[in-house]
Amino acid sequence: MPINVREGTLGAILYNSRIISEADITAALEEQQRSSSRFGEALVSLGIVTQEDIDWALSNQLDIPYIRLKQEMIDPEALSLLPPHLCRIHQLIPLIRAGDELSIAIADPLNKEAVTAAAEASGCRINLSVALIREINEMLDLCYGLPREDLLGFSSGLLSPEQLSSINADSSGQQLINSLLAYSIQHQLTSFSFRPLEDLISISGRSGATSHELGQLTHEHYAGLCTLLRKAAGLLPSGETSQSGCLFFQYHEREICFQVLLLQGANGDYLTIRQHISATIPAKLDLLQLPDFQKQQFRRLATRRQGMILFASRSLQERCRFMDLMLEELDTDGQSVLILGKEPGRMNKRFPRIPLAGSEAARGRLIMDSLEHGPDILVIEDGTALESFTAAGRAAMRGKLVLVGMDIRGTRNLCDHLIRFRQRNAFLTPFLSGIVSFKGIQLLCPSCRQAATIAQQELLGLQMQPPPAELYHATGCPQCNYTGVSERIFLTNCICFDRELHARFDAASDGSSFIAGLNADGYRGIKAEGEVLLKAGAVSPEEFIAAVIQ
């Protein structure tokens, strides 16, 4: 089996059927990356196979019937069990119902998401047959009627009839995307989301803690709109249940970056789009805008010679750069340092790197195997899962200094995670040397900052008594590319554990109680520094809630 295909995938099935070679797989993967197409579509477009070749191989290897569709094979009662948009999204069509079983013809029988969606929508167990995409689409048009190509199906009470007419005339969805991006800039939205429901797509906007509806979209053209956004943001066409990427939008002759977040749902992609202001993490701690207290804590951690130091953030790149800052501060002369993962260790110092294994069990074994090579310092890109974390803890127990990335947002969430692991005897608290947790926060542009009045609900969301006397928004101007943001900085919690903190942590029932005890003793962390910025008018209340409270 070629190393670049997984068992059970289309590539593996075609290779095992001797329809394609390893060279064909490599060519198709390159075409897939270039064109953002599916693997099978890439093979067909390159002329390596025909669609009939693919369908025959799937049918033969998976022991699923391969049929040539005709209209008389389709029972109208079965058609009523699945909505047209679901069938078009997943390229399938109902054939016949027998008791609690529904037989369907599908172009891709490996698409588990499609089978699950059909089962949930129909309430039946699903039996599969394989059919040509072309014949499925023909039968969908015959049985359900042609999709409305002349109208996108978008409605909104916020836009003028002229704007709606222009948006709906473009069935690709590009005009709708452009209009929503411009609207989010003009109205200072934190984000907006496409939320697929069974009968429609709800489009909502979020400003701070408040959400409101922007409009609705029918399902007919939503799959095409999602494909458009996937390509624009550099996301894979399918396969990953959650992805993120960036797209760029021209507004008033300025290029503005938006982050696109995707979750695969039963009725289509759940998409959230928000403005993205990047923050550069310098290669020296002194150049990072941290309060003196947090810098002192960070440097205290850099004097440790054993134990685990955890780096928590949902951003892989950002938490790895903070791990790199720690490596820069550590005295590594005469020390053997080993990097496990692809991202850490990319600043000034260079160390040997070992790729992390795919499965969690394999990652745990790799961490333990690496100890046989005698490292003094072990850097683990991701130790969030139980197997990896337990192995990292064992490394610390053997006297190693272990820097561990954690795919967790916020100190409280990290502490809750650790307490659950402690309760499962996954690690011993005395070997926890420290925690570095951070959140990015966007500062208002001083050129367009204005005093603002916010609703009582948002004041309560600030969780400050009393709330600040004055609060500010930014309207957007040429100096900030109409984003209302001047820069993005980091708020940080650096916590050095000693005997007293170990005892407190062991006694804590959850993360909130542990952090409350720290704050009561005068610890100044993310929330305290965020409140200083809010009171100074440097951040908006919406950004404070999103970055600090939530």
Automatic annotation (TrEMBL):
<dbReference type="InterPro" id="IPR037257">
    <property type="entry name" value="T2SS_E_N_sf"/>
</dbReference>
<dbReference type="GO" id="GO:0005524">
    <property type="term" value="F:ATP binding"/>
</dbReference>
<feature type="domain" description="Bacterial type II secretion system protein E">
    <location>
        <begin position="366"/>
        <end position="542"/>
    </location>
</feature>
<comment type="similarity">
    <text>Belongs to the GSP E family.</text>
</comment>
<dbReference type="InterPro" id="IPR001482">
    <property type="entry name" value="T2SS/T4SS_dom"/>
</dbReference>
<keyword id="KW-0067">ATP-binding</keyword>
<dbReference type="GO" id="GO:0016887">
    <property type="term" value="F:ATP hydrolysis activity"/>
</dbReference>
<dbReference type="InterPro" id="IPR007831">
    <property type="entry name" value="T2SS_GspE_N"/>
</dbReference>
<protein>
    <submittedName>
        <fullName>General secretory system II protein E domain protein</fullName>
    </submittedName>
</protein>
<dbReference type="InterPro" id="IPR027417">
    <property type="entry name" value="P-loop_NTPase"/>
</dbReference>
<feature type="domain" description="Type II secretion system protein GspE N-terminal">
    <location>
        <begin position="62"/>
        <end position="148"/>
    </location>
</feature>
<dbReference type="Pfam" id="PF05157">
    <property type="entry name" value="MshEN"/>
</dbReference>
<dbReference type="Pfam" id="PF00437">
    <property type="entry name" value="T2SSE"/>
</dbReference>
<keyword id="KW-0547">Nucleotide-binding</keyword>
<dbReference type="GO" id="GO:0005886">
    <property type="term" value="C:plasma membrane"/>
</dbReference>
